[in-house]
Amino acid sequence: MDLSFSTILGAAAPVFVLLGMGFGLRRIHVLTEEADASLLKLVIRVFYPCLFLDYIIGNPALKGGSNLIAAPSIGFITTAGGFVVAFLVARLIGLKRGKGLRTFSFCNGIYNYGFIPIPVVLALFGDRETLGVLLVHNVGVEVALWSVGITLLAGQFEAKALKKIINPPLIALIVALSINFTGLDGSVPEWVANPVSLLGACTIPIGIMLAGASVADLLTSQGLIEMPKIGLGSIGVRLGLLPVLFILLAAFLPKISMELRQVIIIQAAMPAGIMPIVLSRHYGGDASVAVRVVIATTLASVVTMPLWIQLGLRVVLN
């Protein structure tokens, strides 16, 4: 595998192009806020489940074996661990309860685990095995988000939040794995498989452009200057400390597949996810802190993402 900086940058560049397109389309009012809700529902309820079906059915890396247990377990551990590390950093930079501590910890613990890493994985590795492992890994992230994460953000256990774990992508995962286990993966007719593949391919461009539009909204409503320690602290923990810990995990954790090691490296380089902004507003967090975390880490990741991916892959593959 070519691990040169130009190759890694070339794999990540389409992500930032699509983010920029979403940003620009929002600014010229082509991608309007009124369209966001319906497009997001389409992505989550149709396109994303189709992506699961397309890349998990018949995937040799997911037909039994350790990936089915290790991948979601590591997704959960890295996310829950990220909450802890971010909480400690938040205390170090002087954040307190009621003053952004919980929101900072929550938002920095949730990396962008879906729309951004998917095209990077496809560009770098070009195989369905690694992307399939990524999708299964993300189930563990979702469980950590709706259990540990929401408890941290709300300051109390929220039983209703656990219902969010049961969602269309998870149902698609269960269906796909059931097809694999029953040996029917080789019997899916093309007239079913082809439309599913086409719909799944829509996930990436539409999802990333929606994220870019959200960044445009955030930059309009909030800045970074008023609370610089939030932005700088976020870059330090999300794009500095946590990538080091992720790379060490990928390099030294025994008995995990190479596909899973590659997934950990890609996730190590990700900025904070955008969805926690909405969750912060809903569960009593500080939305202004969440906005600054997302803006700072997303903008900084243009530089840091290729560097961390290059370093991580060199460590793991050498």
Order of helices and strands: HHHHHHHHHHHHH
Distance between the termini: 11 Å
Q: Tell me, what's the shape?
A: globular
Low-pLDDT runs: none
Q: How many H/I helices? A: 13
What about the largest sheet? Answer: none
Radius of gyration: 19 Å
Strand content: under 5%
Report the count of strand segments. 0
Description:
There is one protein chain. With 318 residues, this protein is an all-alpha fold. The chain is built from 13 helices and no strands. Helix 3 (67-92) packs antiparallel against helix 10. The longest helix is centred in the last third of the chain and has 31 residues, at 287-317. The chain is globular.
Question: What would you say about this model in short?
Answer:
With about 325 residues, the protein is mainly α. The protein contains 13 helices and no strands.
Secondary structure blueprint with pairings:
Layout: H1 5-27, H2 33-56, H3 67-92, H4 101-109, H5 117-125, H6 128-154, H7 168-181, H8 190-201, H9 203-221, H10 228-252, H11 258-268, H12 275-282, H13 287-317
Helix pairs in contact: 1-5, 1-9, 1-13, 2-7, 2-8, 2-9, 3-4, 3-6, 3-10, 4-6, 4-13, 5-6, 6-11, 10-11, 10-13, 11-13, 12-13
Write a concise keyword list for the protein shown above.
13 helices; globular; single chain; 318 residues; mainly alpha
